[in-house]
Design brief:
This protein has 398 residues and is of the alpha/beta class. The protein contains 16 helices and 13 strands. The strands form two sheets. An eight-stranded mixed beta sheet has the order 8-7-6-9-10-11-12-13, with helices on both faces. It has a five-stranded parallel beta sheet with strand order 1-5-4-2-3. β6, α10 and β7 form a beta-alpha-beta unit. α10 runs parallel beside α11. The radius of gyration is 26 Å and the shape is elongated. The termini are far apart. The protein binds zinc ion. The site of zinc ion (ZN) has 8 residues, from α14.
């Protein structure tokens, strides 16, 4: 029987090897020569530092996971490990058993790469407690450690600590979204508690943002909660939206005048908005990604007749409906943050709770949209949120 060293020598004789200098040059060149770079070491080795841009497929999971990392077998794939032995064996497997056409193993592995003075990326580590708290996220490949880091780095602004904002804020907090801003100037009322589950009976009369913050901090101390005890209007919206580098805005305000204002400001600042609306037993949801999909004005160039606007006075709503819609909003926000899945950009989702049906409408950008057909800098302060005066609008409803 050959020794292990002899097997490695034999394998190295039949596979292609590549020098770290060549890999470095190809990755830097940006001329289409860049290979898919795969780190075949164990998780703890990968987390201690890897080549920037490398995908992680431990050699023990090579056969089951390689297609996720390098789906195209005709692509050029470069494998590396610590010193070049494990990657040579893995390259042999990819070539001989899995039919990859252009596989190379990097000579000397990451050790030689580092000796040459090339960059190594050291991912931030989660604390032991965070690993446990987010373990069910880390176990799903679409989130994983990388997605959890993105969530912890993410900044989400929630408009409204009410019926829609309650479930959204609870689940984004539980998911470990690092910074959550919450805007509301209302106080907790007894009639809120049928659906606004972030508040409690003993907080009636207290500020909603303070109450929300208490619940969120108790659920997850990792989350930095920023409160904005104000009513969003034309005088403060740009300041609030620019108070942090918000990655996503979740609109749970459900009133038309603010929705137009928010749309115009978010297009101008290029911040995606997850927008839900509810009435009675009906909910709707979409994602407005500026210049990627339609904006709110593309869909609704004019507001509905005032008497149909849910923002004017008290309307009935099934308490769990905003729960459903708020949680769908949280799901969309998380997908936007981790960059996985298909968001509702360009789609309007309609939910009929009585019939238990979901319907989906394709929605397109309007080439003549007064807002998003133009460059962000061309949108002036005067044009933002142009909408009938709120009081007059509701008064017209009678
Ligand atoms: Zn538009």
């Amino acid at each position: 029987m050959p020794t292990g060293a002899e097997v490695i020598r034999e394998v190295k004789g039949r596979i292609d090897e590549v020098d770290p200098g060549t890999v470095h040059a190809d990755l830097e060149s940006g001329n289409g020569n860049a290979p898919v770079l795969i780190d075949v070491r164990e998780s703890d080795e990968f987390e201690a530092g890897h080549i920037p841009g490398a995908r992680h497929v431990p050699r023990g999971h090579l056969e089951s996971r390689i297609e996720g990392a390098a789906p195209d077998r005709s692509q050029r794939v470069v494998l590396y490990c610590a010193s070049g032995n494990r990657s040579a064996l893995a390259a042999d497997t990819l070539e001989r058993l899995l039919g990859y056409e252009h596989v190379e193993s990097m000579t000397g592995g990451i050790t030689l790469w580092k000796d040459r003075g090339y960059d190594v990326e050291v991912p931030r580590r989660l604390t032991k407690e965070q690993r446990e708290r987010y373990s069910r996220h880390i176990l799903i490949p679409e989130v994983g450690l990388e997605g959890q880091q993105k969530l912890l780095d993410a900044k989400v602004l929630l408009l409204g600590a009410g019926a829609l904002g309650s479930p959204t804020s609870l689940y984004l907090t539980a998911a470990g979204v690092g910074t959550i801003g919450i805007v509301d100037n209302d106080v907790v009322d007894l009639s809120n508690l049928q659906r606004q589950v972030i508040h409690t009976t003993d907080r009636i009369g207290e500020s909603k943002v303070e109450s929300a913050q208490l619940t969120m901090k108790a659920l997850n101390p990792d989350v930095d909660v920023r409160t904005f005890d104000l009513r969003l209007d034309a005088s403060n919206i740009m300041e609030v939206l620019q108070s942090e580098d918000w990655d996503v805005v979740v609109d749970g305000l459900d009133n038309f005048p603010t929705r137009y204002l928010l749309n115009d400001a978010s297009v101008r600042l290029r911040i995606p908005v997850v927008s839900a609306a509810i009435l009675g037993f009906d909910g709707q949801l979409s994602v407005f990604e500026p210049y990627v999909g339609p904006c709110y004005r593309c869909l609704f160039p004019t507001p509905p007749p005032a008497e149909l606007a849910p923002s004017c006075g008290a309307n009935g709503v099934l308490g769990v409906l905003p729960g459903t819609m708020g949680m769908l909003s949280a799901t969309e926000a998380i997908k936007l943050i981790i960059g996985k899945g298909d968001t509702l950009t360009g789609r309007l989702l309609l939910y009929d709770a009585l019939a238990a049906t979901f319907t989906e409408l394709k929605v397109r950008r309007d080439p003549d949209c007064p807002i998003c057909s133009r460059a962000p800098d061309d949108i002036t302060d005067e044009e933002m949120g142009v909408f009938p005066d709120y009081e007059a609008f509701c008064a017209a409803a009678g």
